[in-house]
Design a protein that fits this description.
By secondary structure, this protein is of the alpha+beta class. The protein is built from 13 helices and 17 strands. It has two domains: 203 residues, CofE-like (60s Ribosomal Protein L30, Chain: A, 2-Layer Sandwich); 183 residues, NADH Oxidase. The strands form five sheets. The chain has a five-stranded mixed beta sheet. Strands 13, 14, 15, 16 and 17 form a five-stranded antiparallel beta sheet that branches. Helix 8 crosses helix 12 and helix 9 runs antiparallel to helix 10. The longest helix is centred in the C-terminal third of the chain and has 28 residues. The protein starts with a strand and ends in a 21-residue tail after the last strand. About 13% of the residues have low confidence. In the N-terminal section; belongs to the CofE family. Its EC number is 6.3.2.31, 6.3.2.34, 1.3.8.17.
Amino acid sequence: MNSYRVWALPGLPEVRPGDDLAKLIAATGPGLVDGDLVLVTSKIVSKAEGRILAAADRESAIDAETVRVVARRGALRIVENRQGLVMAAAGVDASNTPEGTVLLLPEDPDASARAIRTGLRDTLGVEVGVLLTDTFGRPWRNGLTDVAIGAAGVRVLDDLRGGEDAHGNPLSATVVATADELAAAADLVKGKAAGLPVAVIRGLGHLVEADEGPGSGAPEPGTPRTETSEAAAPGTEASGTTASGTAASGTGAERAAETGAEGAAGPAGTEAAAPGPSGARALVRSARDDMFRLGTSEAVREAVTGRRTVREFTAEEVDPGAVRRAVAAAVTAPAPHHTTPWRFVLLESAASRTRLLDAMREAWIADLRRDGKSEESVARRVRRGEVLRRAPYLVVPCLVMDGSHHYGDARRDAAEREMFVVAAGAGVQNFLIALAGERLGSAWVSSTMFCREVVREVLRLPDDWDPMGAVAVGHPASDPPPRPAREAADFLEVR
């Protein structure tokens, strides 16, 4: 199959809450046949399902539909909404709805698509595929296009992995977003302001699936992708319905802004992750797997607040390059007198880690015994320090006082050292944040500061290098628990 037809269905009445969309579509498109694809603008689904909200303040409606903010610029927000979609204004639409009201997206777009498909089967006796569409921006691209947000009986992803290209090269990563391509084709004839919310595509029946259950959203690996050469056959109802620049949901500025942060669907041109859920959910990349899940300012804030102490690690090896990139970030911290008071000792071999930790343990045991601790207490305390042994990689940050000033009196000399210690801490904080950005966990443990001479001797460090603890580094064995909330007001005094 190398061609298809696409046309809009004229004559659909204004949709109101409680309307049976399947019957309305059947009345305007009685000639539907098995294998047709029916593409429905999500706005009329929202109206039929009563997703109309009285809201004098659209912003509060957006707040209620937002799960997380991806990016913000002024009043404009790109967010992940309750349906898992990343889009402008959570999909809350104040256009084509009575003043003082807004339209929310269908609560479950896949379920809505299934209902329409079942209704068309019952009314017309045809087996069609149904897609619900909405308008999105795209990363790194100007302009808007329609994508699928709900699907029933449609092969939404065309998985080419396991096949070969025209030259016999194996295809190992490419998964085509077929449902989004269909949505964009349909939008060419539906338009944005022509009052044509439903389109039909004929000639691609191989994309229609009989099963709507789990797995229907993704084809088997190696399924060939059908090329299309004709967007609309002559004589179809496409005339006069070309897409305009009007956004289908929210404002044009909001939709255009999505082009920089459409995180859930993934950046344009990248390969899709392995399909999992059925329906259009299979098109949505999880935030965890998205390389562009946040805007710049949001990413900076989350990098700081999202850094957590990790004490349990997997056995997976740590990429030394990732640690070196984190060190490069560490040495951008502020420091006194334009100095560079940071040094980082990387313990990449198991032998070097064991040698250091054994020597530190002996020094710690000696200190505890001098403190009069019982052998049981000593053993218990030593066990608590095993976090460094469980890590597959250790880093010892050190402070050097090169470039510091000497004043000759204890008060100012102590202040000078404190400035350098603060700078060392800032460098370690940068280091920990950068490790988190590399998806590495870390735990900053103070132990080397209590036996600096031992550390310098074992690691053969210069006498003027002061160890400032040790950092355990590795891949987290599990997600850390939620951080207890802290109110900034509890830490403020205003004068």
